[in-house]
Structure formats: C-alpha cells, structure tokens
Design a protein that fits this description.
Length: 967
C-alpha cells in the first residue's frame, strides 16, 4: 500500500538518498512533502588514491596499497576530498530527519554505496533499504512501502572485488613502469581485454592471403517474370565433376588448403577456360529443395546486447550508450540499464502484448506470453530486462524525446514489443543447376532463396550484424518457380577472383560479445573497461575497429611471459566464478584473497596454512599453484625490459617500444654501436608495419641534422624532428648552466610549413632564429615587429596585433605595407569561415551535413549544432563517416559543458547573499567598524589572511560577497 500525504506527515520527515541529482529530481516529484530527496553524487568514500590520503596512523605497505594485507586484507576507506561538503550536507539533513531511506541502485555497486553511506553518516534513526528498477510513481511508492534490509553479502562481494582489483592494479602497474613505460596501468579485466585485441592483431600479422576463383552465372527461365516470380536469377559454381569448388572457408590462415579437404582449387586460368567452355551449354534444373523457414524474436535487451545493437544500428560506443541510457533511466523512461536479465515482469509482458495488438493487430500476438531464459552465467542483477518503464509503454513519439535519447529509447521500445510477437515464417529454397562444358567437364551451380510469408516480429524489429556484409534476417531472396528437369539458358557466365581476408578486428560491439561469451568480467563494467583501454592508449579506433597500439604489444608480452595466469582467459573467468561464489555465501573472501596474494602453500600473516585444501575450500577451483601475486611482483630479475619490448619485423629489422614511443631499428654492423633508428607513427596499425614500410621509414631523414655553424656565435646549428613538429636550434657548450637562475636556453624556432628537415638550410635556420624581425616604426615611434605564433604569422605594434597572409611575409613585408595594414580598421569577431577539410555525409541524428573543420585547437567534426574534436588516433584523411557520427554521438551524450567553478561558487552563495541582505542596520554598522579596524591593523592580520586563502572557493566567495554587501 502506498503512503499517503497524511501518513507521511504523521511519520515525520524522511531523508531519501540516491546517487545522482537527476535521479533525485525525478523521485522527489513522486513523493509527498514529508520526504527530502538528496544525492550522494556517486561513491562518497573509497580506497585512497595515494599515500597522501591515508591517515597518518597507517605506515608501510598499508599506505601504499590502501589495504592491510597483514590483517585479513582490511581495506582503508577515506571520504573522497570532493565529497566532503556533500557528506556534511547529508549529515545536516539527516540530523533533521526521523527516518533514512537508502535508495541507491539494486546491484553490488549500489548496495556498496548504500553501506558506505550508512557507515559514514552513522544514523541514529531507523534505516531502510529502498529498491526499485524503474523510476515511475507507482514503483517509487511501492519501494517506500516495502523496504528491505541492507544485503551485506552483496556488499562483501563488491568489497572483495574492489580489494582484488586494488591489489592487482597497485602491484602489477609499477612493474610496467619499471619495464615498459611510466604512467601505465594494469587491471584484472582491462589487461585481458587488451590481450584479446592484441591476439587478433597477431593473427592478422601472421595471416597470408590465398587467391581462389569460381564462376557466377545469370540464368533465364525464358518467361517475362515479375516480382513474385523473377525471370532471371544468379547462381554460383559449386562443383566440377562432382568435386566441390574451393571457397574461402577451405583455406588456413597461412593461405594453404586445409588438410583432408577434397576440394577443387581453381586459379584464374582454369576459371576463365571453364567459363568459355560453358558459353553455349544448355543447362537444366537438377534439384529443387524447399524447407520451412522460421525465426523467433530476440530476447529483450540486457546491458551487453543493448550496447552491441546501439553500436551496430546507431553508431554509439559502449560508453555513449550507457550515458544516454543513464539519462533515460533517471528521467523515468526505461528500467535500470545495468542488468544481466532477459526477464520481463508480468506487467511489462501485458504492456508489450497490448501494444502488439494495438499497433500490429491480433494476428501478430502469440497465444501465450513469451519468456526468455537467461544466458549469462551467475547473473547477479535482481532486475528485469531493459525495457520502457511503466505499466503502459509510451511510443517513441509520445515521449517528447529528441536526438540520441529518442533513438536509443526507440531501439529499446521496438526490441521489447517485438519480443512478445509471433515468429516470422516462410520458405528457404535451394536450386541446383547443371550443364556440361565443351571439354566434357560437368559443372553444377547452386542458388539459394528465401521468402517470408509472415513477417511476425520482423514488422517491429530486426537485429543488426557485426559483419557489414552479412545479410539481415528480414532480407528476402526470391527465386523463379522452377521444377526439376526445367531447361535454363545462361545469359552470362563470368569468372570471379577472390582472396581470403584476415580475421576482422574487434569493434566495441564484438569485443563486448567476446568478453561476455568467455565469461570474463561483469557485463555492467564493459563500457568502463573499453573506455579505459582507449583512454590509456592501449587501443585506438580506426573507423569502428579497435586497433592495438605497439605499446599494448609490449605490455601484453610482459604480462603473458611473467604473469601468465593473470591474463589467462580461463583463469580470469574462474576468478569471476569464485567471486560469485563469495557473493552467494558459498566461499569465504579472506582465504581466497590470501591464496591470490600470498600463493599456495604460503603461510598467511596469521601463521595459518593457506595450503591447497584451504584454497579449494575457499572456492579456488582446481587449486593449481598460483605462485602468489606478491612473489611475482617482487622477483623482477628475470624480466628483460628490452626483450619484452622488441618484436622482429623481418630482414633483421626490429620494432622496439621505447620511453617516447615505438621505433624501428636496423642493427649496426659494428658491435657496441647503436643501430639506425626511425620513429614509427603512433597511429600505425601493427599489421601494416611490413619490411617494406620499415625500410621506407629508415630511409627518411631522422635524428639531428647538423646545418653548419653560426658565424656570429660559433655554435653548431641543428635541425630536429620534435614532438610538436620539425624545428631548428643551437647547440650550447657542455658547461652552459641548464638550470637555476643563471640557466641559458638555446635559441629555437619551428620550421615554416613550406620547409622540411631534408631541405632546410643554415641560412633558413639563422633567419628563423632571428625572429621576431623589426619591420620599422610608425610615425609616433612605436616599433612594429613581424613574427610567427601559435595561430600563424602576424604583426605586432605595442598591444595591437594583425594577422599576415603567409609565413614568408614575415621576412618580406616593408614598413609601408605594415602601416597600410594598420591603417585598416581592425576586424572584430570571427574571421571568415574556412572551407571544410572533408565532408562525411548526413548525420543520422540531426539529419544535417557533417564536415571536418580545422579549428583553433585542431581538426574537429561538426553538424552545425554539435562539435567534437578528433582524437589522437583519428586522421582527417582516413576518418570515416561512421567514426564522425560516433564522435558527435559521444559529445551529445555528455551533455552541455559544466559551468566553471567560479559560477558554481557564486550559485552556492545565493542563499548566504540573501541572508546578508536581511542583516540589520546595526550588524552592518558593526561590520563597517570591523572593516575600518582591519584596514588600520593590516599588518597584524597577515596570518589570518593567509589562512583565509586556504579556505574553499565557496567560503571565500561567500565571505567576500557578504562583506561587499555590508560595506
């Protein structure tokens, strides 16, 4: 029974805490006036981010890890610095409340947030756990009326995962810093996900293409034909003299026919000769095989299937999908979006079936409701599938949504309604056609067709495919109505050449699918994992494909060779099983963590034996020897940093990953000397680094080019290729101070765009380093200079700057020409718009043309409404329309930029400013007197002012504005 307003009033004031302000705003509208709804804004406390956050009483390893491994892995929790003010606010609200409702999400993460809130707030009033999986009026009131207790088992399971991930990250990451590169990170699931992407690239590198040929024929029945009974159709050669013709599936990744495959491998000459021999052949239908076709609806969305379909159909990345879904959930449009379940409630089934009848008719409604069995092992969420919220589904048009939110809602709505519709049925037909060539060989062609007689659920929804060339379920292929023995005429027979293709790289959708099928990690975390490996530079995008960087090759190589079990797919999946057993209360966390960290047969800190029996009892599966994480990261002597970062390219050339990026090296003929090196572009896909390309890189000018000696200083002048482009500089003597107040910096200048390292001369370099050039003076005697800046060449006279048309003008412009430019009125506002660098097509959301433009901070894509900067791995020349749309979708999903801290501070002080206005005249006078005294005794208040500077921005703004009002 839902609480009424009167009941609420009698029950006193209730504080409801949720995670986000948007969620709080929606829920507040569904509860009575006796409820205060406030957001925790995510986690309020966590393990410390560094030793500086750990309380002083902890020392040694505890400060470094944030976990006391010697005392049963006790975690050290600290309130996040940016949440202290929010915690204070929550405590103040709780002090005025008679009851506390913890209304965080109903999963491990949400249960953990609720537990941390209870631990930090220390409520002295009754505490209720309020759970719901959709934000509707009925669901919220039902949740208030039926609260439950906090599920400590879920909390313990989440805590174990958090500790495990902390130990993994904080122990393995420093190994990467020492042996590969500073700033790298390792993670229990992110490292395995990276390994999957790297292994796929290794397969592509090892792949050797095979060429094969076959024939395609266009056959005619001799009838005029129509849409239902076409007069012509295409068929492909399937066999010659009873022997099947080789197709791509018959070859290995090395381009060889698979062992035992009794197939005919046609080359170009064979295929063309056979095609010529069949030119005048009379063909007949040898067989017609018809089978019934039936396709059942797809299950409603769970987290991963939604991410996959949003990627295929909408071009969204996993992160963008979850951001949009989060907004839809918080605003009451869909149910909770992090779920492993495909189950629909009775209410949802009834709503879906009602819409099937209403929109498609009773013929499309099955006699009984459909139910779907869960496919995810150890599904931990207690929710439904992702569906439209409420007991009556709003059609997309009824929601009033726009843009990405509309498109994702429409996808979810269609999938949910389709899941309760009838099967699609029809017929699939295979026709075999035969004829004899002029040389006597028997050739057989085959054609397949599909007709759908009742579309069923396909009227509402058809699932996409990861392969862009794959045929979707609702695609029909109609063949003519023919019977065995019918004669056919070949209108055209052509020889077609094919080549086997390397395995496709993962996309976000296919990687999510692979992780789920291998049971690695938790589906609710996949979007975060993908974001991490992209942000860390382990993987970059080429179109929608995920490409591993050379850096990730080095990292995975190290992990495979020295931490093999930690990135083993089966072991990682087994760890997930163990963690789920702990969540169900079937295993204990501490013995399991001891085995993982200290190893088999190693005495724990308490002196107890954490041997094989104890490990198996703790839920450790087969009890194989792990070696212990601590021991693995302590003994690093066997790790050869150069070896794990080196990969043979061929012909003696090596690819190495250094501190500043990847490079190729040809060893020197002289022992002990450094070989010839050349940098490799960061965005080069590893499978494109061939011997020929490496030779090309090595042939390019690289390193320092000595241009000569400056005649005035006698110092060598060199040209270099730096991080921000080519430049020239002088070489200072070895004894020149490089630090301190007497430090001397060498003269340096960037090359003009028209210059290159292999053509720049000493004269060019000296001219560049002489800038800025004095052009002359104006009639008032003010000096005018010409120089090159971040945004191009320009003139400067005092504080007045004017742009020049080209870099060459810096050296050629005369004082009269400069004065003429200054005589013109200075242009205000934006300069004339530059033409786009590339046109990508029409955005599927805004339906406006998308172009790539050159902006102040680099190239970006825009549809005129939304701008998105190209990432480091995106290139103007190679960016695809799909990638452009994806960048725009991600930018839209983030929403408008947050206001600056200054504005925020001002906003927060509004209440205090209002209070200041109401201050009595007497108090105002007192403040004025105080102000005067402060002025007189300024020197005495120095310490107080210093302390005041250290207060928060909000307090400072409040004090200043209040004082201003008083004065």
């Amino acid at each position: 029974m839902s609480p009424t307003t009167s009941e609420t009033a009698q029950g006193g004031r209730r504080l409801v805490i949720v995670e986000s302000p948007a969620k709080a705003k929606t829920i507040k509208g569904y509860l009575g006036p006796g409820y205060v709804v406030e957001a925790s804004v995510g986690h309020i406390r966590d393990l410390p981010n560094g030793a500086a956050e750990v309380p002083d009483k902890y020392t040694g390893e505890v400060r470094r890890l944030g976990v006391d491994v010697e005392r049963d892995f006790q975690p050290i929790y600290v309130v996040n610095a940016d949440k202290k003010s929010q915690v204070k606010k929550l405590k103040e609200l709780l002090a005025e409340s008679d009851e506390l409702f913890l209304a965080t999400d109903e999963d491990r993460e949400g249960e953990a947030i609720a537990w941390h809130l209870q631990e930090v707030l220390k409520p002295k009033v009754p505490v209720r756990r309020m759970v719901f999986h959709e934000i509707t009026k009925d669901a919220i009131r039902e949740a208030v009326a039926n609260p439950r207790e906090l599920n400590k088992r879920l909390v313990d399971a989440q805590e174990t995962r958090r500790i495990l991930d902390r130990l993994y990250g904080y122990e393995v990451s420093p190994v990467l810093w020492k042996k590969v590169m500073r700033g790298l990170s390792a993670g229990r699931v992110q490292s395995v996900a990276t390994r999957l992407v790297v292994e796929r690239e290794r397969e592509r590198i090892a792949f050797r293409s095979a060429e094969y040929w076959d024939l395609t024929g266009t056959f005619s029945t001799g009838r005029a034909g129509d849409v239902s009974d076409p007069g012509t159709f295409g068929a492909r050669l399937s066999a010659v003299d009873g022997r099947r013709v080789a197709q791509g599936r018959d070859f290995t990744s090395l381009g060889q026919l698979k062992d035992g495959s009794n197939v005919l491998h046609l080359n170009e000459a064979d295929a063309r000769a056979l095609a010529a021999g069949l030119a005048d052949t009379a063909f007949t239908v040898r067989s017609v095989e018809s089978k019934p076709y039936r396709r059942s609806p797809y299950a409603p969305f769970r987290t991963t299937t939604m991410q996959q379909e949003a990627s295929r159909k909408l071009g969204f990345g996993a992160k963008a999908t979850m951001q949009v879904a989060q907004k839809l959930y918080e605003n009451g449009y869909i149910t909770y979006m992090r779920t492993d379940s495909t189950i629909l409630s009775d209410t949802a089934v009834a709503a879906a079936r009602a819409q099937v009848t209403q929109l498609y008719g009773a013929d499309y409604l099955p006699d009984k409701p459909r139910s779907y069995a869960g496919k995810v092992k150890n599904a931990q969420e207690a929710h439904e599938a992702i569906r439209p919220s409420g007991d009556r589904f709003r059609t997309p048009a009824e929601t009033g949504l726009t843009g990405d939110q509309f498109r994702l809602y429409e996808l979810i709505w269609k999938r949910t309604v389709a899941s309760q519709m009838k099967d699609a049925v029809g017929n699939s037909v295979t026709v075999k056609i035969g004829g004899r060539a002029s040389d006597g060989r028997d050739a057989e062609f085959s054609a397949s067709g599909k007709t759908i007689t009742f579309h069923g659920f396909m009227k509402a929804y058809v699932e996409g495919a990861d392969d862009p060339n794959a045929e979707l379920d609702d695609r029909e292929r109609r063949l003519p109505q023919v019977a065995e023995g019918d004669g056919l005429t070949a209108e055209e027979i052509t020889a077609d050449g094919h080549a086997t293709k390397p395995p496709a790289r993962y996309t976000e959708a296919s990687l999510v699918k692979e992780l789920e099928e291998r049971e690695i990690g938790r589906p609710s975390t996949y979007a975060t994992i993908l974001g991490t490996i992209l942000d860390r530079g382990y993987v970059f995008k080429k179109g929608t494909a995920l490409v591993p960087s050379f850096l990730s090759f080095a990292v995975v190589n190290l992990l495979e060779k020295h931490f093999g079990r930690l990135v083993d797919y089966d072991f990682t999946a087994k760890m997930e099983d163990d963690l789920d057993r702990i969540a169900r209360g079937e295993a204990q966390a501490v013995p399991w963590l001891k085995r993982f960290y200290f190893g088999e047969g190693v005495n724990g800190a308490d002196g107890g034996d954490a041997g094989e029996g104890a490990a198996a009892e703790a839920g450790n599966g087969d009890g194989d020897h792990l070696g212990g994480l601590k021991e693995l990261v302590t003994d690093l002597g066997a790790i050869d940093a150069r070896e794990i970062s080196s990969f043979p390219v061929g012909d003696g050339i090596m690819l190495r990953v250094g501190r500043y990026g990847p490079y190729v090296e040809r060893p020197s003929q002289t022992e002990g000397e450094t070989g010839h090196r050349a940098d490799v572009p960061d965005d080069l896909p590893p499978d494109e680094l061939t011997v020929a390309f490496a030779e090309e890189l090595l042939a390019k000018p690289s390193g320092d080019f000595e241009l000569g000696t400056d005649p005035e200083t006698g110092r060598p002048i060199v040209a270099k290729d730096g991080r921000y482009g080519p430049y020239v500089t002088e070489v200072l003597p070895d004894d020149t101070p490089k630090t301190g107040k007497n430090a001397v910096k060498p003269r340096t200048a960037s090359l003009f765009k028209s210059m290159s390292l292999d053509t720049v001369t000493l004269e060019d370099a000296l001219k560049l380093m002489s800038l800025p050039r004095v052009v002359g003076t104006d009639p008032e005697g003010t000096e005018i200079t010409a120089q090159n800046g971040r945004y191009g060449p320009y003139l400067k006279k005092g504080t007045d700057s004017r742009s020049l048309g080209s870099e060459e003008q810096i050296f050629t412009i005369t004082v009269d020409e400069a004065l003429a430019i200054y005589a013109q009125p200075k242009q205000r506002g934006r300069a004339a718009a530059k033409p786009p660098l590339k046109e990508l097509g029409t955005d599927p959301v805004s339906e406006k043309p998308v172009v790539v433009k050159d902006g102040r901070f680099g190239p970006y894509v825009t549809d005129g409404e939304t701008n998105a900067t190209l990432r480091r791995d995106d290139d103007v020349e190679t960016i695809t329309p799909e990638r452009g749309y994806e960048l725009l979708a991600e930018k839209r999903a983030k929403g408008p930029a947050k206001k600056t801290a200054k504005k925020t501070a001002a906003k927060k002080t509004t209440a205090k400013k209002t209070a200041a206005k109401k201050t009595t005249a007497k108090k105002t006078a007192a403040k004025k007197t105080a102000a005067k005294k402060t002025t007189t005794a300024a020197k005495k208040t120095t310490a107080k002012k210093t302390a005041a500077k250290k207060t928060t921005a909000a307090k400072t703004a409040t004090a200043e504005k209040t004082a201003a009002k008083a004065e």
